[in-house]
Amino acid sequence: MEYQPREILLDDLIHTLQPLIEKYDLEEIGIFEEEGQGNNYYLGYRVLKDGKEFIVHLPYEKNKEGNLGKLKQEWAIETEEADDIDLHGYKNLDEVFYTISQGLH
Q: Where is the GK1464-like domain (predicted)?
């Protein structure tokens, strides 16, 4: 697994914000990052589409130096809604945003 500094990964995400807004007709988009249990770390986007907020992220592992390595190329979709389930297994953002546009219920 290849590890990179967190700042480089965040910079890569930041450069994709405007193109993603235009491509997927998003109302808003920002960076999402969360440190999970153990060495787990999550990076991705917080998006607003059709008035609903979604968190879209990839799983990473944080090493002793604080660098991040992608565990797998599998996007997940989460919402803050209690009745929605988290969805996993998306290979790319086209699949993610197609699913969001179709509704998650």
A: 4-100
